[in-house]
Amino acid sequence: MLQPRYLSPDTATAALRRLKPSPEELTEFRQHLAEMLKHLDPTKIERHGETHILDFLRHVSKPAEGGARYGNVKDKRDLVLHLGDTADSPVGVVLEVKGLKNPKEMLAPDDLNRKALHQLLIYYLEDRTDDKADDFCSLIVTTGYEWYIFDALDFHRLFFKDKGFVKDFLTWKAGAKAAADPQALEAQIDALVAALYGVALPAAPVPAAAS
Length: 211
Description:
The chain has one domain (about 5-205). With about 210 residues, the protein is of the alpha/beta class. It has 7 helices and 8 strands; from the N terminus they run βαααβββαββαααββ. Strands 2-3-4-5-6-8 form a 6-stranded mixed beta sheet, with helices on both faces. It has a two-stranded parallel sheet with strand order 1-7. Helix 2 packs antiparallel against helix 3 and helix 6 packs antiparallel against helix 7 (about 180-195). InterPro entries: DUF7149. This is DUF7149 domain-containing protein. It holds the Pfam family DUF7149.
């Protein structure tokens, strides 16, 4: 079964030190995180939280040279965050947002092979096979309260370099466009992503905390 590889607190702290955030930047991050958590409502549908999550990410991921990043929905993707301030700039982050009302679809520490990861992987492979993912940095599954963050390089190494897997995906993709039965399509996706079992993904659940 798919298992996340946890980062210990010491490892996470060391990585943070390498980024060298200033005390002011850490304070600003905490403030934006607290603002997002204040507005999230676990009783609402997924779409409700997307605006607050996107606002949070745009505030805490501003380019070092200044300016802002453009973010929005894109095709069937819940959210994407661009590297620049326009929709024409490359996409750097793709997010699959899940609500707490759908716990069976959300990833769990002991089970990553769920619908949220299926959808994220399908989006990644769609864009990679259409040459639209060269600038991807991260792929994220989140409820706003809990974050699973994947490095795009790991998706490339584990999935896109598997030529047999990509060939099966392209075969599915060609047929999926003509599929009329949503349940049949979901069954095809589940069968395709079943190949993920046995792979250890280097991702860890990161709970959001305003402290």
